[in-house]
Structure formats: structure tokens, C-alpha cells
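in:
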């Protein structure tokens, strides 16, 4: 489904109170009709951007550009990063994750910093929530459940 996004100030009516929802609906209808009439460039693909209209009206330049749809798959995490997110989602601390993966806790911290940056989050809970929103496929792991012996600080 397509939509014409009104500039924020117009949607509030601050700069032009005469533009109402019905006007935006009509503008949307006109743009859709116009886009259908513009021939597609033979060399343009869905991955390319294409200028449909480049017009000079009353001394101002107006462009109508066809852009590819943004990737909805979410940020790309490595298999190791996905595994760390899975383990964090199970409530495991960095030391336990490091022990299970046979890496240092500093390396786990580095992975977490990079995951936070990729997902645009600042906490472990937000990381897990964002990951679950971005990756809707079931996740499996080669690392099984972690169990501990009483008094042991390392997983069995």
C-alpha cells in the first residue's frame, strides 16, 4: 500500500491551514495517477532510484523520485551475534556466555556493543525485543541448555 507523507508542519496545519486530510487524499490520488502514466526506464530496476519528474514551477525545482523500498529484514547479525542474543534472551550473564562459547567475557562485551550499535539499542532487554521484532523466523541453536553443578561457576 502506498501513502503520501505530508510534511510534519503541514499535517499540523502550521504553514498552510488550507491543506486538510481530504486535500492530502486528493494529492495522493493525483500522484498515483501521474506515476502510472510515467513510463518506466528500461534500465531501472526495483533496486535503482529513478527521477520521474523534474519540474521548475514558479522558480522552484520539484522532483518526484521513485526509490526502492527499504529492506524490511532488519540489520544483519552474524551467526555468533545471533547466538549471543539468544543466550542473553535466556537471561545468561556475560561470563556464562563466554564459558559456553569458549571465548573471553571481553569478547562477549565487544559482540554486545556491536549488536547494540546494529540494532540501535542501549540495553540487553531492548536488544532482545528489537531482535525478536526484526527476525520473525524461528531461531535454533547448536548450543543446548546450560546446566550448573552446585558450587560451580562454569557450565557443565
Amino acid at each position: 500500500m502506498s501513502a503520501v507523507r505530508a510534511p510534519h508542519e503541514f499535517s499540523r496545519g502550521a504553514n498552510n491551514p488550507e491543506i486538510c486530510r481530504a486535500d492530502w487524499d486528493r494529492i495522493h490520488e493525483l500522484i498515483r495517477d501521474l506515476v502510472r502514466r510515467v513510463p518506466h526506464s528500461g534500465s531501472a530496476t526495483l533496486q535503482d532510484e529513478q527521477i520521474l519528474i523534474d519540474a521548475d514551477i514558479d522558480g522552484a525545482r520539484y522532483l518526484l523520485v521513485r526509490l526502492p523500498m527499504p529492506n524490511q529484514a532488519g540489520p544483519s547479525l552474524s551467526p555468533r551475534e545471533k547466538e549471543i542474543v539468544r543466550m542473553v534472551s535466556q537471561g545468561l550473564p556475560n561470563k556464562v556466555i563466554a564459558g559456553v562459547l569458549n571465548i573471553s567475557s571481553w569478547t562477549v562485551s565487544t559482540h554486545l556493543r556491536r549488536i547494540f550499535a546494529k540494532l540501535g539499542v542501549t540495553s540487553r532487554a531492548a536488544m532482545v525485543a528489537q531482535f525478536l521484532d526484526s527476525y520473525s523466523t524461528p531461531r535454533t541453536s547448536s548450543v543446548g541448555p546450560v546446566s550448573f553443578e552446585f558450587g560451580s561457576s562454569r557450565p557443565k
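note: The first strand starts at residue 50 and ends at 57.
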